[in-house]
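Recall from the previous chapter that SMILES is a line notation for molecules. Here it describes adenosine-5'-triphosphate.
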Amino acid sequence: MAYVIALAGKGGTGKTSIAALTVKYLMEKKKKPVLAVDADSNSCLNDALGVNVHATIGQLREESLQTIRSGADRPGGMSMEQLFDYQVQQSVVEAKGFDLMVMGRPEGPGCYCAANNIIRKYTDKLSETYSYVVIDNEAGMEHLSRRTTHKVDLLLIVSDPTVRGVRTAKRIDGLVKELELDVAKHALIINRVSGGEGEELRKLAEEMGITVAGLVPQDHQIFEYDLQGKGIVELPADSIAVTALYGILNSFSIG
Ligand SMILES: Nc1ncnc2c1ncn2[C@@H]1O[C@H](COP(=O)(O)OP(=O)(O)OP(=O)(O)O)[C@@H](O)[C@H]1O
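With both inputs in hand, we obtain:
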């Protein structure tokens, strides 16, 4: 069974960037198959990973529904479920060192939940094939209550370096307990820290009863890579964000 790391946090905190750098860490340090799952319809994990996506779960679901409605023949007489399983396997982007599955932007009533259920089912199914799964979750908290991520070894909650950010993180932290989610460990990363505020926010978070995993600094190289359209998985080892995050991840005993 894979070791599952999920990322949560409100939009714009750098959750997707931390997810991509976590994939980079696992590829470099563990050298075993990694599955990245973009379960956030608003984020672009593929850009951070520097790969193109040809089909999302949302699109595949739409296509399958159309096949059912049109009564068209299915290849090899496959059942609808077999066809969809096959398509999902085909949609997984195979990159150097990791694979990627994307939820996309499901349209129409009920589609969001359906796509979420599909992604959950396939994450479970595929987690038997991979040693590590990294899930970039929906921004905000409602996804946790939908239990997109039901077996999670490590949940990293990402906050920006603001008091409001830490308070939002506290709400997410509280939900983990309240909803009795299947999360073995959870901790906060304060991202984009550029000065003394990081330590003050760490203190505030700890006073609120949140476990702080560590601080990741504001890194100009991330901006440069974004500007050049390069995936941040290519960041060099001397990147200050990479160094800080690797230190944080080393502190967890990731199997
Ligand atoms: N440590 C960092 N240093 C510099 N820039 C960063 C850092 N972390 C993230 N960023 C930048 O902040 C912006 C938001 O990051 P990202 O897209 O990862 O956030 P997000 O929380 O996933 O947001 P959303 O859910 O809206 O996509 C991006 O432009 C990203 O390049």
